[in-house]
Design goal:
9 helices, alpha+beta, rod-shaped, 23 strands, 6-stranded antiparallel β-sheet, 577 residues, single chain
């Protein structure tokens, strides 16, 4: 069965009807308003404040960090226009001539410190023109930047950029040097780099140093460590100084001693300087008009040459100097270090000693002890190879510091050794000290006579001789002295022996007496120099006469021999009976 087509349903939406109604209502309302003349009235405009008598002063629109370059948008916002400035009374601005009034005075300059927004600018806010950006830009010319942990020096983290201070280290007791240095006792001021330094026991590591900035891994501030402190949930201050690094500016010569002190874990202190004084003013005034004198920085032993290193501070290599008032300068002080180097000291000196000419050995002096009969060597002399005494033989033992003369030496060409001391008319005899009584008291060069004392037994010598009655009463033992050697010279004493120089014809007599265990005596003679000091009434020539031996007792006895009745008879009697 076929279906019948139905007419389509209406597709016009109901929302279209609503919109048409709204449009008609708006048109009616517009007609009413226009008819009333309300659209012909202009809307009132906002009135600008009057700036009569005010002057624009640039200000920081954002927080600025130290050592950053100021950009235009940091001080001028195009969208704000004139509102980028402070508008201040002209009288107020004129009372602050240090304020910058033009943007071009600020843009491109490098900040010297942190600056918060809404503050005006002055020259002290910036590094000198031409400075580089970054932390190195904050280091003054002639200084060097030095980074160290904030915990190493108590209080350093609380300083702000530009604050000045000194850094000192207290030395351990075992390494303290005596503070009674000669230069200080004489009224001098010890200085380094043209600046006074404290006494020993405290080491000055840095002087007139300057705070640059305090940094962590994330931020940097020039306003001190309080800017980095945080608080916990209970309101307590929380800080970890181990994470903070302090950047300071110091003299280049101070980098080495400061590094050494930090490495040695010395106790280091910081002493701040007044912010009201001109930098270095006190130091300059203390040394002004004073005269510097070089001195030793270390102890130097006697008979040693002065080296350049002896005059230089061990840690810095700088010349040790003391500054004196002109009236305190002593006569004879040597003012030029070049007049000291290479000179040989007469005596040892301690650190801080200031030299005079008499502190040094003159040309031709010994710097080592030289034994008798030893040849003078190059390194024995102040002059070294330039000396005329090289190769000469010492006639006696010479102490270091002796200024040589011909009297101290044998003639040129004399060979070194013991034979050099034996005169041409003598021979040397070596004897045991215990075999000759008194010889142990003598020294090299002394002169003496040798005597032997012998007991003579006449009865034993005249055994078998018929003696006269007068002679029988004299037959008893007696001591007889015999002169063995005269004017013998002590050539050398060593260990338990002594070397005596005697005349050749006396050697046999001395040797025979010693071999027979006779008692040998040493009789000392005076030196010519000692004779000259004696009273003129004493005949000096008498002392030079030789001793005489006692006469032989047998020489006074006459011996006769006769034969009576075939018997041989030997008779003895004193001569002259």
């Amino acid at each position: 069965m076929a279906t019948r087509n139905r007419p389509p349903a209406s597709t016009f939406p109901k929302s279209a009807i609503v919109i048409a109604v709204l449009i008609a209502g708006c048109s009616l309302t517009y007609g009413i308003v226009r008819a009333a003349g309300w659209l012909d009235r202009a809307a009132p405009l906002a009135q600008k404040p009057s700036r009569e008598g005010l002057v624009p002063v640039p200000k920081a629109l954002v927080d600025l960090r130290a050592f950053d370059v100021v950009r235009r948008e940091d001080v001028y916002d195009l969208s704000r226009g004139e509102e980028s400035y402070f508008w201040l009374p002209k009288e107020q601005v004129e009372s602050h001539p240090e304020w910058f009034e033009r943007v071009d005075q600020i843009i491109g300059r490098v900040m010297a410190r942190d600056k918060r927004a809404d503050f005006v600018f002055s020259e002290k806010d910036f590094l000198p023109e031409g400075s580089r950006s970054g932390i190195v830009g904050g280091i003054a010319s002639g200084k060097q930047g030095f980074f160290l942990s904030a915990e190493k020096i108590p209080g350093l983290r609380f300083l702000k950029s530009g604050d000045r201070f000194d850094i000192l280290a207290s030395l351990p007791k075992k390494s303290e040097q005596p503070s009674s240095e000669y230069g200080l006792l004489m009224g001098g001021i010890k200085a380094r780099g043209g600046k006074p330094i404290p006494l020993n026991g405290v080491r000055l590591l840095a002087q007139n140093a300057e705070m640059i900035a305090l940094t962590t891994r994330r931020i940097m501030t020039t306003q001190g460590g309080l800017q980095l402190d945080a608080t916990d949930t209970r309101g307590r201050t929380v800080n970890n100084a181990k994470d903070e690094q302090v950047a300071i500016a110091i003299d280049p010569a101070e980098a080495v001693p400061l590094t050494q002190a930090l490495g040695d874990d010395l106790e280091i202190h910081m002493v701040t300087r007044s912010g009201q004084e001109t930098p270095l003013a006190n130091d300059i005034n203390r040394l002004e008009g004073r005269i510097p004198m070089p001195a030793t920085a270390v102890a130097v032993e006697a008979f040693q040459p002065i080296r350049a290193s002896d005059l230089a501070e061990p840690t810095t290599g700088e010349l040790r100097q003391y500054y004196f008032e002109p009236a305190d300068i002593q006569d004879g002080w040597i003012a030029r270090p070049e007049d000291l180097i290479g000179r040989v000291l007469r005596h040892g000196v301690e650190p801080g000693y200031i030299f005079r000419e008499q502190d040094f050995l003159p040309s031709g002096s010994l710097i080592k002890e030289v034994e008798a009969y030893q040849q003078i060597a190059v390194d024995d002399l102040v002059d070294g190879s330039r000396s005329n005494w090289v190769g000469r033989v010492a006639s006696r033992e010479l102490a270091a510091g002796t200024e040589l003369s011909d009297a101290d030496l044998f003639p040129a060409g004399t060979s070194p050794g013991l034979t050099a001391a034996i005169p041409a008319d003598r021979m040397a005899l070596i004897v045991d000290l215990f075999d000759v009584q008194g010889v142990e008291e003598l020294s090299r060069g002394d002169r003496c006579d040798l005597l032997a004392s012998v007991n003579v037994d006449l009865q034993q010598s005249l055994q078998g001789v018929e003696l006269s009655p007068a002679l029988l009463g004299e037959l008893q033992s007696r001591a007889v002295n015999r002169v063995l050697a005269t004017d013998a010279i002590v050539v050398q004493r060593r260990d338990q022996h002594v070397v005596l120089a005697t005349r050749p014809d006396e050697v046999s007599a001395v040797a025979r007496a010693l071999a027979q265990k006779q008692t040998v005596f040493c009789v000392a003679r005076s030196h010519p120099s000692e004779l000259a000091s004696l009273t003129p009434a004493i005949d000096a020539t008498a002392t030079n006469e030789g001793l005489e031996s006692d006469p032989d007792p047998l020489t006074g006895i006459a011996i006769t021999e006769s034969i009576v009745g075939g018997n041989r008879v030997v008779r003895g009697y004193r001569r002259g009976q």
